[in-house]
Write a structure and sequence with these properties.
The protein contains five helices and eleven strands; from the N terminus they run E-H-E-E-H-E-H-E-E-E-E-H-E-E-E-H. By secondary structure, it is of the alpha/beta class.
Length: 225
Amino acid sequence: MTATVGVVQFPGTNCEHDVVEAVGAVGGSATLLWHGDGSIGDVDAVVVPGGFAHGDYLRPGAIARFSPIMAAVADFAERGGPVVGICNGFQVLTEAGLLPGALQKNAGLKFICDESQLRVASNDSVLTGGTEVGDLLSVPINHFEGNFTCDAETEQRLVDNDQIVLTYVNNPNGSVADIAGICNEGRNVVGLMPHPERAVSALLGSEDGLVLLGSMIDAAAGARV
């Protein structure tokens, strides 16, 4: 039985259908979840996709964290369910307290839309389980507030707990420790700024997102909660 992925829609989300198509490309099935619902239904994993949730008013993700569905997502994560936040979704997960740190404006205060080279820093997460540490992946970025920041104590904890899962080879936005993606201590919640759903075909420039999303599907199939 294939894994079913719930893809959350907020007002302003614009990458949800890309994620649905990408999930299908790695053998999963996907269903859209509305932010105003209080349940995620019977899904095996959740993706919070990119976009501009609630117009990014106040701060990106700051209003989205209060949507009813986020309580259900948090409960699912607490029970060990795989949750992945991509770009704006990463911002939502930090605002909701499911991941540490925060995302601020890029160094140089410029919007970046480009390919990024990533290095796998840890393969002990639901998103990187199918990779090897040191693997290089080409995955596009598309953000203005993708500069990951945290205090020194949090950074050290991320390092000590092997929670940094992806780093930039050439840091494009000023993120602390070149961080492109992190996971929680339980390894089942991952946030990343690059867009793996846009790297699933050579026609799009890269197929390197397949291994990441495929890892999520494998983790979901093996950890139904």
